[in-house]
Write a structure and sequence with these properties.
alpha+beta, Prot_kinase_dom, Ser/Thr_Kinases-Pseudokinases, Phosphorylase Kinase, domain 1, 3-stranded antiparallel sheet, Transferase(Phosphotransferase), domain 1, 2 domains
Length: about 325
Amino acid sequence: MDSFKTPLKNKLTNNVKVQIPPSPLMKKIGFGTSVVVYELQRSPIPGKFRSPWAIKKLIQSHKNRDTSKFINERLKNEAEILRKLDHPNIVGFRAFTKDSDGTNILAMEECTSSLGDLNENRLDYLGDVPYPSDTILKVSYDVAKALDYLHNTALLLHCDIKSYNVLVKGEFEVCKLCDFGVCLPLTKSGEIDRSKAGEDAEYVGTPHWSAPEVLLGNSSITTKADMYSFGIVVWEMLSLTPPIDDELLEDIEGEDYSDELPPISIKRELTTVRQRPPLPDVDLGPEYNLVLEIYFCCTAVDSSKRPDAKNLVCVLEEAKQT
Protein backbone atom coordinates (compact mmCIF):
# COMPACT_ATOMS: atom_id res chain seq x y z
CA MET A 1 0.00 0.00 0.00
CA ASP A 2 1.39 3.37 -0.99
CA SER A 3 2.20 5.70 1.88
CA PHE A 4 -0.44 8.37 2.29
CA LYS A 5 0.84 11.88 1.65
CA THR A 6 -0.24 14.94 3.61
CA PRO A 7 1.07 17.96 1.66
CA LEU A 8 0.23 20.48 4.37
CA LYS A 9 1.17 18.39 7.36
CA ASN A 10 4.24 20.41 8.32
CA LYS A 11 2.38 23.56 9.27
CA LEU A 12 -0.98 24.73 10.53
CA THR A 13 -2.27 26.65 7.55
CA ASN A 14 -4.15 29.79 8.59
CA ASN A 15 -4.75 31.45 5.23
CA VAL A 16 -7.19 28.98 3.67
CA LYS A 17 -10.48 30.78 3.04
CA VAL A 18 -13.52 28.56 3.43
CA GLN A 19 -17.09 29.81 3.42
CA ILE A 20 -19.28 27.71 5.74
CA PRO A 21 -22.21 27.88 5.33
CA PRO A 22 -23.47 28.55 2.68
CA SER A 23 -21.50 27.32 -0.29
CA PRO A 24 -22.62 25.46 -3.41
CA LEU A 25 -19.51 23.31 -3.03
CA MET A 26 -20.41 22.11 0.48
CA LYS A 27 -22.65 19.32 1.72
CA LYS A 28 -23.09 17.96 5.23
CA ILE A 29 -21.72 14.43 5.60
CA GLY A 30 -21.62 13.91 9.37
CA PHE A 31 -21.82 15.33 12.84
CA GLY A 32 -20.64 14.69 16.38
CA THR A 33 -20.71 16.29 19.81
CA SER A 34 -21.26 19.99 18.98
CA VAL A 35 -19.46 19.66 15.63
CA VAL A 36 -20.55 19.17 12.04
CA VAL A 37 -18.57 17.76 9.11
CA TYR A 38 -18.99 18.96 5.53
CA GLU A 39 -17.60 17.66 2.27
CA LEU A 40 -15.88 20.46 0.35
CA GLN A 41 -15.57 20.01 -3.41
CA ARG A 42 -12.68 22.35 -4.09
CA SER A 43 -12.78 24.61 -7.12
CA PRO A 44 -10.96 22.97 -10.04
CA ILE A 45 -7.61 24.17 -11.36
CA PRO A 46 -7.01 23.70 -15.11
CA GLY A 47 -4.95 20.58 -15.71
CA LYS A 48 -4.86 19.58 -12.03
CA PHE A 49 -7.09 17.23 -10.01
CA ARG A 50 -8.11 18.55 -6.58
CA SER A 51 -9.47 15.95 -4.18
CA PRO A 52 -12.36 16.88 -1.87
CA TRP A 53 -11.75 17.80 1.75
CA ALA A 54 -13.72 17.03 4.90
CA ILE A 55 -14.36 20.23 6.88
CA LYS A 56 -14.98 19.94 10.62
CA LYS A 57 -16.25 22.87 12.67
CA LEU A 58 -18.51 23.93 15.52
CA ILE A 59 -22.24 23.62 14.82
CA GLN A 60 -23.53 27.12 14.07
CA SER A 61 -26.35 26.92 16.63
CA HIS A 62 -23.79 26.05 19.35
CA LYS A 63 -21.66 29.13 18.71
CA ASN A 64 -22.91 31.03 21.77
CA ARG A 65 -23.09 28.08 24.14
CA ASP A 66 -20.79 27.81 27.14
CA THR A 67 -19.05 24.81 25.55
CA SER A 68 -18.13 26.62 22.30
CA LYS A 69 -14.72 27.76 23.58
CA PHE A 70 -13.96 24.22 24.75
CA ILE A 71 -14.96 22.69 21.39
CA ASN A 72 -12.92 25.25 19.44
CA GLU A 73 -9.90 24.48 21.61
CA ARG A 74 -10.43 20.76 21.08
CA LEU A 75 -10.46 21.30 17.30
CA LYS A 76 -7.16 23.16 17.60
CA ASN A 77 -5.67 20.36 19.71
CA GLU A 78 -6.89 17.77 17.20
CA ALA A 79 -5.27 19.70 14.36
CA GLU A 80 -1.97 19.88 16.24
CA ILE A 81 -2.05 16.11 16.80
CA LEU A 82 -3.23 15.18 13.32
CA ARG A 83 -0.62 17.26 11.50
CA LYS A 84 2.13 15.23 13.21
CA LEU A 85 0.72 11.83 12.26
CA ASP A 86 1.80 10.09 9.08
CA HIS A 87 0.22 6.71 8.42
CA PRO A 88 -1.88 5.29 5.56
CA ASN A 89 -4.59 4.17 7.99
CA ILE A 90 -4.99 7.55 9.70
CA VAL A 91 -7.00 10.30 8.06
CA GLY A 92 -4.76 12.94 6.48
CA PHE A 93 -4.42 16.50 7.76
CA ARG A 94 -5.06 19.20 5.18
CA ALA A 95 -5.34 22.61 6.87
CA PHE A 96 -6.38 24.49 9.99
CA THR A 97 -7.97 27.93 9.73
CA LYS A 98 -10.87 30.08 10.95
CA ASP A 99 -14.28 30.71 9.46
CA SER A 100 -15.58 34.24 8.91
CA ASP A 101 -17.30 34.06 12.32
CA GLY A 102 -14.01 33.26 14.07
CA THR A 103 -14.69 29.59 14.77
CA ASN A 104 -11.95 27.06 14.14
CA ILE A 105 -12.03 24.88 11.02
CA LEU A 106 -10.13 21.62 10.61
CA ALA A 107 -9.75 20.41 7.03
CA MET A 108 -8.95 16.73 6.51
CA GLU A 109 -8.78 14.07 3.85
CA GLU A 110 -12.31 13.14 2.76
CA CYS A 111 -13.39 9.50 2.88
CA THR A 112 -16.50 7.82 1.49
CA SER A 113 -18.30 7.01 4.74
CA SER A 114 -17.86 5.96 8.34
CA LEU A 115 -18.08 2.30 9.28
CA GLY A 116 -20.91 3.17 11.68
CA ASP A 117 -22.98 4.64 8.85
CA LEU A 118 -22.24 1.64 6.66
CA ASN A 119 -23.39 -0.68 9.46
CA GLU A 120 -26.70 1.18 9.69
CA ASN A 121 -27.19 1.09 5.92
CA ARG A 122 -26.40 -2.61 5.73
CA LEU A 123 -28.93 -3.39 8.47
CA ASP A 124 -31.59 -1.31 6.69
CA TYR A 125 -31.10 -2.93 3.29
CA LEU A 126 -29.94 -6.48 4.07
CA GLY A 127 -31.26 -7.11 7.56
CA ASP A 128 -29.07 -8.72 10.22
CA VAL A 129 -26.60 -10.23 7.74
CA PRO A 130 -23.02 -9.75 9.00
CA TYR A 131 -20.28 -8.56 6.70
CA PRO A 132 -18.29 -11.32 4.99
CA SER A 133 -15.45 -12.50 7.20
CA ASP A 134 -12.87 -11.21 4.70
CA THR A 135 -14.32 -7.69 4.98
CA ILE A 136 -14.25 -7.79 8.78
CA LEU A 137 -10.65 -8.99 8.75
CA LYS A 138 -9.67 -6.26 6.26
CA VAL A 139 -11.15 -3.55 8.49
CA SER A 140 -9.54 -5.16 11.54
CA TYR A 141 -6.14 -5.24 9.85
CA ASP A 142 -6.29 -1.58 8.82
CA VAL A 143 -7.45 -0.38 12.24
CA ALA A 144 -4.92 -2.59 14.05
CA LYS A 145 -2.10 -1.09 11.96
CA ALA A 146 -3.30 2.41 12.83
CA LEU A 147 -3.42 1.53 16.54
CA ASP A 148 0.03 -0.06 16.40
CA TYR A 149 1.38 3.19 14.95
CA LEU A 150 -0.45 5.33 17.51
CA HIS A 151 0.53 3.23 20.52
CA ASN A 152 4.14 2.44 19.64
CA THR A 153 5.37 5.23 17.35
CA ALA A 154 3.25 8.31 18.06
CA LEU A 155 2.82 7.23 21.71
CA LEU A 156 -0.83 8.24 21.77
CA LEU A 157 -3.92 6.63 23.24
CA HIS A 158 -6.86 7.32 20.90
CA CYS A 159 -9.47 7.17 23.69
CA ASP A 160 -12.52 7.05 21.40
CA ILE A 161 -12.35 4.00 19.13
CA LYS A 162 -15.79 3.25 17.67
CA SER A 163 -17.30 2.45 14.29
CA TYR A 164 -18.13 6.11 13.64
CA ASN A 165 -14.45 7.00 13.97
CA VAL A 166 -13.38 4.46 11.36
CA LEU A 167 -13.61 5.98 7.88
CA VAL A 168 -13.93 3.77 4.82
CA LYS A 169 -12.74 4.63 1.32
CA GLY A 170 -14.58 3.09 -1.61
CA GLU A 171 -15.58 -0.55 -1.23
CA PHE A 172 -13.36 -1.11 1.81
CA GLU A 173 -10.20 -0.46 -0.20
CA VAL A 174 -8.73 1.24 2.86
CA CYS A 175 -9.95 2.15 6.35
CA LYS A 176 -8.64 5.10 8.36
CA LEU A 177 -8.96 6.21 11.97
CA CYS A 178 -10.22 9.73 12.61
CA ASP A 179 -11.25 12.02 15.50
CA PHE A 180 -8.16 12.61 17.62
CA GLY A 181 -9.61 15.35 19.81
CA VAL A 182 -9.45 13.41 23.08
CA CYS A 183 -6.11 11.59 22.62
CA LEU A 184 -3.78 11.20 25.59
CA PRO A 185 0.03 10.84 25.58
CA LEU A 186 1.52 7.47 26.43
CA THR A 187 4.67 6.28 28.10
CA LYS A 188 6.76 3.70 26.24
CA SER A 189 5.24 1.06 28.52
CA GLY A 190 1.76 1.87 27.19
CA GLU A 191 0.32 3.76 30.17
CA ILE A 192 -1.09 7.29 30.19
CA ASP A 193 1.85 9.69 30.58
CA ARG A 194 0.67 11.76 33.54
CA SER A 195 3.76 13.99 33.36
CA LYS A 196 2.46 15.29 30.00
CA ALA A 197 -1.30 14.81 30.30
CA GLY A 198 -1.62 15.96 33.91
CA GLU A 199 -2.63 13.98 36.96
CA ASP A 200 -6.33 14.69 36.39
CA ALA A 201 -6.39 13.62 32.73
CA GLU A 202 -9.13 11.11 31.94
CA TYR A 203 -9.88 8.67 29.15
CA VAL A 204 -13.02 10.41 27.83
CA GLY A 205 -14.26 8.02 25.18
CA THR A 206 -17.87 7.12 24.41
CA PRO A 207 -19.44 5.04 27.20
CA HIS A 208 -21.05 2.52 24.83
CA TRP A 209 -17.61 1.47 23.55
CA SER A 210 -15.50 2.04 26.68
CA ALA A 211 -13.64 -0.72 28.50
CA PRO A 212 -14.82 -1.85 31.96
CA GLU A 213 -11.78 -0.31 33.66
CA VAL A 214 -12.59 3.04 32.05
CA LEU A 215 -16.24 2.96 33.10
CA LEU A 216 -15.28 2.11 36.68
CA GLY A 217 -12.79 4.97 36.86
CA ASN A 218 -9.63 2.93 37.35
CA SER A 219 -6.54 5.11 37.53
CA SER A 220 -4.33 2.71 35.57
CA ILE A 221 -5.48 2.97 31.96
CA THR A 222 -3.30 1.52 29.21
CA THR A 223 -3.39 0.85 25.48
CA LYS A 224 -5.56 -2.16 26.30
CA ALA A 225 -8.50 0.22 26.76
CA ASP A 226 -8.31 1.08 23.05
CA MET A 227 -8.09 -2.64 22.27
CA TYR A 228 -11.35 -3.34 24.12
CA SER A 229 -13.10 -0.65 22.07
CA PHE A 230 -11.56 -2.19 18.96
CA GLY A 231 -13.15 -5.51 19.93
CA ILE A 232 -16.53 -3.80 20.16
CA VAL A 233 -16.04 -2.46 16.62
CA VAL A 234 -15.48 -6.05 15.45
CA TRP A 235 -18.70 -7.04 17.22
CA GLU A 236 -20.55 -4.21 15.47
CA MET A 237 -19.61 -5.66 12.09
CA LEU A 238 -21.26 -8.91 13.16
CA SER A 239 -24.35 -7.45 14.82
CA LEU A 240 -24.75 -4.20 12.81
CA THR A 241 -26.17 -2.58 15.97
CA PRO A 242 -24.86 -0.32 18.77
CA PRO A 243 -23.10 -2.16 21.60
CA ILE A 244 -25.80 -1.77 24.27
CA ASP A 245 -29.52 -2.48 24.48
CA ASP A 246 -32.05 0.14 23.35
CA GLU A 247 -33.56 0.78 26.80
CA LEU A 248 -30.25 1.61 28.43
CA LEU A 249 -29.21 3.59 25.35
CA GLU A 250 -32.28 5.81 25.74
CA ASP A 251 -31.48 6.38 29.43
CA ILE A 252 -27.93 7.45 28.64
CA GLU A 253 -28.75 9.55 25.58
CA GLY A 254 -31.25 11.49 27.68
CA GLU A 255 -28.31 12.99 29.56
CA ASP A 256 -25.41 15.12 28.36
CA TYR A 257 -22.13 13.24 28.77
CA SER A 258 -20.36 15.01 25.93
CA ASP A 259 -17.27 15.91 27.89
CA GLU A 260 -17.26 13.55 30.84
CA LEU A 261 -18.16 9.99 31.71
CA PRO A 262 -21.63 9.25 33.12
CA PRO A 263 -22.40 8.96 36.86
CA ILE A 264 -21.20 5.88 38.72
CA SER A 265 -24.69 4.29 38.69
CA ILE A 266 -24.77 4.40 34.89
CA LYS A 267 -21.13 3.27 34.70
CA ARG A 268 -21.92 0.16 36.74
CA GLU A 269 -24.97 -0.67 34.65
CA LEU A 270 -22.99 -0.18 31.46
CA THR A 271 -20.21 -2.40 32.76
CA THR A 272 -22.71 -5.15 33.63
CA VAL A 273 -24.39 -4.95 30.24
CA ARG A 274 -21.24 -4.58 28.19
CA GLN A 275 -18.61 -6.83 29.67
CA ARG A 276 -18.99 -8.81 26.48
CA PRO A 277 -22.01 -8.18 24.24
CA PRO A 278 -23.64 -11.45 23.12
CA LEU A 279 -23.10 -12.59 19.57
CA PRO A 280 -26.00 -12.06 17.16
CA ASP A 281 -28.34 -14.99 16.58
CA VAL A 282 -27.06 -15.74 13.09
CA ASP A 283 -25.20 -18.68 11.58
CA LEU A 284 -21.47 -17.93 11.51
CA GLY A 285 -19.51 -20.53 9.57
CA PRO A 286 -15.90 -21.62 10.18
CA GLU A 287 -14.64 -18.73 8.04
CA TYR A 288 -15.55 -16.48 10.99
CA ASN A 289 -13.37 -18.36 13.50
CA LEU A 290 -10.55 -15.80 13.45
CA VAL A 291 -13.05 -12.92 13.65
CA LEU A 292 -14.60 -14.48 16.75
CA GLU A 293 -11.21 -15.17 18.29
CA ILE A 294 -10.26 -11.51 17.87
CA TYR A 295 -13.56 -10.37 19.35
CA PHE A 296 -13.31 -12.60 22.43
CA CYS A 297 -9.64 -11.80 23.08
CA CYS A 298 -10.03 -8.04 22.71
CA THR A 299 -13.11 -7.84 24.95
CA ALA A 300 -11.65 -9.79 27.86
CA VAL A 301 -12.68 -8.08 31.10
CA ASP A 302 -9.14 -8.54 32.41
CA SER A 303 -7.18 -6.00 30.37
CA SER A 304 -3.94 -7.97 30.74
CA LYS A 305 -5.47 -10.79 28.68
CA ARG A 306 -6.21 -8.58 25.67
CA PRO A 307 -3.72 -8.57 22.78
CA ASP A 308 -1.82 -5.42 21.93
CA ALA A 309 -2.13 -3.88 18.48
CA LYS A 310 1.29 -5.06 17.31
CA ASN A 311 0.51 -8.70 18.10
CA LEU A 312 -2.85 -8.40 16.39
CA VAL A 313 -1.22 -7.05 13.23
CA CYS A 314 1.12 -10.06 13.19
CA VAL A 315 -1.79 -12.50 13.60
CA LEU A 316 -3.73 -10.88 10.77
CA GLU A 317 -0.69 -10.80 8.48
CA GLU A 318 -0.10 -14.50 9.07
CA ALA A 319 -3.77 -15.20 8.32
CA LYS A 320 -3.49 -13.36 5.00
CA GLN A 321 -0.66 -15.67 3.94
CA THR A 322 -2.51 -18.92 4.64
